[in-house]
Amino acid sequence: MVSSYQRLFGKILKFRALVVVRSLLYLTAIGFIFQHLYSYGDNDLYAPHAVVAVLALLFVVNILLIPFMADAKRTNALVAVLFISDLAAITCVVLASGGFRSIFITYYLLILVIASLWLPRRYTALFPSAATLGLAVVGATHMFANQQKLGVGFLPREFAALLRGVEPTAAVSNMLLLTLLFFVIAYLAGVVGDNLTLEQRLNSEILANMGEGVAFADNRGRLLYRNAELCRLFPELDAAVDLDDLALVMFGSPYRQSPLGRVACGAPGESFVFAIGRNEIAERPPMEIRATRISPDGRDKRAVLFLLVIDLSPRFRIAAAERSIEKFSAISMMATGLAHEIRNPLASVRSAVQELMSAYPEDSDKRVLADLVLSESDRLDGIITRFLTFSRDEPLALSVGRLGPVLEEVRHLLERREEAAAVRIAVVIEDDPEIVCDANRLKEVFLNLGLNAVQLARPADAWLEIRLRRATLPFVQGVEVEFADNGPGVDPDELGNVFQPFYSRRQGGTGMGLALARKQVEAHGGSIAVKNRVGGGAVFTVWLPLAAEDVQDARQSARQMVNRIHRYKDADQ
Description:
The protein has 573 residues and is of the alpha+beta class.
């Protein structure tokens, strides 16, 4: 639990640069004033004690306001007001110490640089304008002091004598030169500040959106930064404030007693790698932690501990996918060889059965058994043919055409099927743009999807609707063909398996139809998906790109993905 004191300290730490710089500014001004008092006496400054009191008051207000800036709705506006109060205070100090002859006039430049670096560019013109107003007050006071020489008593005598040494023309020229200098310096500091802010935001965005967890801690053990990915891996670290909290969450022991304690004993720049296994109770994946102590100048006082936490789950998934690909490839080669070897004796068996059939009359029981052997041989040959078609990668015969006539032909073929006699089949064409495709391959795909629907149709009031429309994905023009039916649908637990080889929803099915359909669609650079329809039934959706270059791009992207997997595996090894 983070205490209120820790939260207050965190707010002060957030604005520590502002606190340090402005505090040094005030303390230096007070010190110079006391030096003048000690060296030259009270006559060289007008009301020095009042100036010191004003500066001391502003210094105290500066410290007290900093903790509340983080909670302010307009933090930048509040900081701008503080800087303007600084300019007003410096104007008082400049007047009290000789006006344009004062050594404190350079403080205008310091405040302008600090304010322009700290705040956005929209405030850039505000501060040189306020400084110019302060110069105008100083210049006007010089002129009043010179008029007092003529007998016009605007100012106290000692104060007027202190400022009378600057002539009116010199005061005006000083004002013009300093005003120009103020605006130039404020503009340049604003440009530098914008570049620094942009770089800081870019670094923050990069760290925040990294796929790895990142954390920084200073040499005192205070946790300076943690990104969202680290808090996702370790939700308890959202309230952590130091390395002890971090080590307790990661390793179950304080920092010095944990494996991270070895980092403090190592040389700057030396990396330590720690592994954390999967934690089923805390629902944490296996992780790798890289810890490095970084020192910009080789001194431990400025060392920073850098932690990089890597979720190893994607790496393991890629390795498992690679093993599955290799296993499937080996099985596919073996199965293709077996299919060829089975097909040859199967043809011999079929020929032998046909020869034997001639020896029996048509009404013989043995003739019926021979017909059964022939039909089952034909079915087995069909399965082998579809399997070989699935395993081969034949090139597409691409041409320009429309899918409307193809779908109408598919409808006529389906209506001639005996199982589709009671099914109402409709083709709805909303838009039929020209598409680059292999029409024969796509006809096989659409016929397969249609047969899959009508063979699972309900006995009464069954229907199948085939809808063609234009469908555009980001940056890719395409068409969409939708097969919707009111059949039994797909078991929600099996939606991810319907396109797998040898998976079938129909008794007696081979399970190769949908797998082959997906392969043909992906060869066109398209995609196929299935979902259950509200009210019952299934919806199969085929998306295809219009242009041939999109087909080529899809193939190229697939090849690049496979190459990246191989490179990732080689890098791990």
